[in-house]
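TICKET: design request
STATUS: open
ATTACHED STRUCTURE:
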């Protein structure tokens, strides 16, 4: 019997985070993976762990969907000018296809795999594509990093906004890139490029309209 479990690339990207909650998340993910493999060994079954990057496509993520929904309300989205770290957003259907594929792959048994998306692009470029998918499209505003952090701190203090924290903002400038070669080799992983639509964030043309 084989089993596939979804973890997250956060197990790597948040291990050394300045945020204690993020470090705890990475620790708990690692412990959960270890328990899974141990239990599979006890039962003489095969287990595979999938570690997707930034998942999108079902309007249930806490990253790109939140960006789309905020931009829908305001007509714009603000990023610091240094938010150019590389990202590899992965569609949820590609993750589901991978989960099915590993069940038929003997090579995948007992292993964990990074599952990046099919395209690598800068953080701001990624957000621009999300905003362009809205109807009408929203604008991306770039501001100096110190001004962005000051405004964000004020919004948090006044209770006007929850997240992102300082560690998440700092990561916007960091490259979070993973190699899909092992997944391609062992179970034919072939993720799509990043081509978002409003429907991927539960935002139809009618829902995104802000006026005539």
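STATUS: resolved
RESOLUTION: sequence designed for all positions
ATTACHED SEQUENCE:
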């Amino acid at each position: 019997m084989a089993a596939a479990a979804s973890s997250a690339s956060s197990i790597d990207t948040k291990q050394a985070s300045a945020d204690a909650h993020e470090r705890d998340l990475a620790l708990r993910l690692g412990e959960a993976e270890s328990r899974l493999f141990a239990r599979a060994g006890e039962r003489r079954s095969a287990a595979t762990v999938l570690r997707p990057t930034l998942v999108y496509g079902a309007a249930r993520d806490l990253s790109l969907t939140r960006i789309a929904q905020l931009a829908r309300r305001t007509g714009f989205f603000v990023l610091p000018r240094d938010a150019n770290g590389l990202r590899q957003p992965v569609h949820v259907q590609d993750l589901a296809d991978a989960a099915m594929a590993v069940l038929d792959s003997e090579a995948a048994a007992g292993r964990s795999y990074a599952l990046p998306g099919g395209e690598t692009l800068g953080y701001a470029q990624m957000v621009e594509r999300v905003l362009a998918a809205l109807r009408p499209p929203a604008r991306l505003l770039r501001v100096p990093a110190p001004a962005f952090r000051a405004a964000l701190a004020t919004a948090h203090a006044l209770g006007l906004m929850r997240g992102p924290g300082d560690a998440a903002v700092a990561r916007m400038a960091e490259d979070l890139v993973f190699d899909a070669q092992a997944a391609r080799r062992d179970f034919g992983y072939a993720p799509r490029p990043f081509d978002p639509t409003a429907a991927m964030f539960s935002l139809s043309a009618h829902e995104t309209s802000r006026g005539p």
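CLOSING REMARK: The two ends are 56 Å apart (CA to CA). Strands lie at 2-6, 46-52, 55-56, 76-80, 86-87, 90-91, 112-115, 121-122, 139-143.
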